[in-house]
Amino acid sequence: MPTEISGSTGVNKIQDNTIVNADINSSAAIAGSKISGGTGKVLQVVSMDTSTSTSSTSSTFADTAITLSITPSATSKVLVTVNANGFHKRTTNTSCRLRLRRGSTTLAAIAEYSNYTDDSAYVNAPGVGFTYLDTHGADGSTAVTYMVQLANGDNSGTAAIGINSSVSSITLMEIAG
Question: How confident is the model at residue 31 (pLDDT cuts 50, 70, 90)?
Fold first, then answer.
């Protein structure tokens, strides 16, 4: 039975835990700031996998297929998780370098594999997992693109990612600020 609030009972007479979720209309608009723990919640998640290979003989970074966009709100952050697999290099003194970018901004170096001694064959390095929390600065209406880039660390031989149909992935989680 609903409780009627009158001049004799008053709002100050309502005891804690007497209003439960079932009492609140499903169309009620409650501001997130009024809900305990409004920050740190996952607002949206986008993810993709790729087995596309990228190789480079240059020390200049180039985009790989590990690329994804999200449209976050202006006050949120984006948690970027990368699992990059299938690295290789060929020839001694070659290194495989990876970095994370948001648009044209470099956010972090992800990995560099080097010091292999086999000149005759491709040498596979282990995959790498990487997480980065980004304060993106977007306005809430613009898509933000995150990408992994690859370079050959010393400009000799070939560095690559995604060989042998290995699967790499990127996940973007918008976190409430």
Answer: low
